[in-house]
Amino acid sequence: MLDIKNLHAKIGDKEILRGIDLHIGPGEVHAVMGPNGAGKSTLSAVLTGRPDYEVTEGSVLYKGQDLLALSPEERAWAGLFLSFQYPIEIPGVTITAFMKAAVNAKRGAQGLPELKAGDFLKLMKEKMALVQMKPEFAKREVNVGFSGGEKKRNEIFQMALLDPDLSILDETDSGLDVDALKIVADGVNTLRTPSKSAIIITHYHKLLEYVQPDVVHVLKAGRIVYTGGRDLIDAIESKGFDQF
Amino acid sequence: MGHGRYIDPFVIAGPTGNLFRVEAGQTLNLQYVVLPGESRDIDVNIDLVGPGAQAHVKVLYLSGGEEQVNIRILMHHRAPGCHSTQKIHGIAGGSARIGFHGAIVVAPDAQQTEAYQENHNIVLTPEAQVKTEPQLEIYADDVKCSHGATVGQLNADELFYMRSRGIPEAEARTLQMLSFLSPVIPEGREEEIEAAVRSL
Question: Can you give chain B as a three-state secondary structure string?
Fold first, then answer.
């Protein structure tokens, strides 16, 4: 699914990723944990093609193609999804208009006709129910006036609707209370299939209690310094990141 | 606020000037749309002369190429209890030149005035220029007035968020521009404005 080799990236003159190697197979869920400033969010930014970040060395293959050569929208069409750490507000654009444009652009790229309005609304309703989002949110402007939990729920709703093959959840658990965390985790677990993969970026263990990863990586100073199984989560919980 | 000397700040300017007198209880609604390909001077003087008169002005401009748009609005509150709003939103591309000069003047007798003015501009290219000069002159004490002016670019975070969801860049920019213009898009002309935005 994803093959990252010796990835170096910088923003401005600051080198943040200093040689990341990461291999994710189909159906695998990987956790990337690390202290603040380790480069976790930079990794998600580079994988989704955020402008301002410059890859200086290394390669990323996604489903066998050069991911870094694709525009952000082409990456989305190829089945990549990022749940933003800080979801963006878009005043004047409703969730319905936003997601309809997104779903139909992806369908267009795949050579499929646009969804009929009725079919789209039905699909949207179904996915909103999955993350327990109230139906009236369909008419709200994207993330405008949402609480932290509502924004994160909206991210997982979008993920459910776009049905990605590789999801990156960037600090999706931050700012969530336990109830909201469970709803988000249930949403993620429902979408888990033997062919779909995910990267869960976090510095807490909370979300990982509900969404169990197959592999856990520790990211420090722009490199993956340790890789292990779920037992690593407990080790980090009790002794922190200094041990690595 | 001290009472300054109260004078008429403008004379009606030239043949393009339009003077509107709004009498007691009347409401004036003005809407201007300037589409790509047009250079225009909009020069409006509104006198609210009767108690309770209202005036609402909306201007939408979409300019590119070498186009020049000059907007001059004088909203003169001369009687008590009048209410006015001005919304001027526009997008400048190419090497367009946009000028906005908008004044709200509240006469000493025009107590209980409510007057609001907003001018928001997006500049798409380094060559396009927008100059905005909002002005408030208030000679009465019991008034609610505000004005705001911004000149900016399309928000890069919004753009990336939309693209990360698979919305192509051009489409994302169109959505952003339409949302920015939405307060001044005349009812029934949505499709025409959308086509004009796409052509910019």
Answer: CCCCCCCCCCCCCCCCEEEEEECCCCEEEEEEEECCCCCEEEEEEEEECCCCCEEEEEEEEEECCCCEEEEEEEEEECCCCCEEEEEEEEEECCCCEEEEEEEEEECCCCCCEEEEEEEEEEECCCCCEEEEEEEEEECCCCEEEEEEEEEECCCHHHHHHHHHCCCCHHHHHHHHHHHHHHHHCCCCCHHHHHHHHHHC
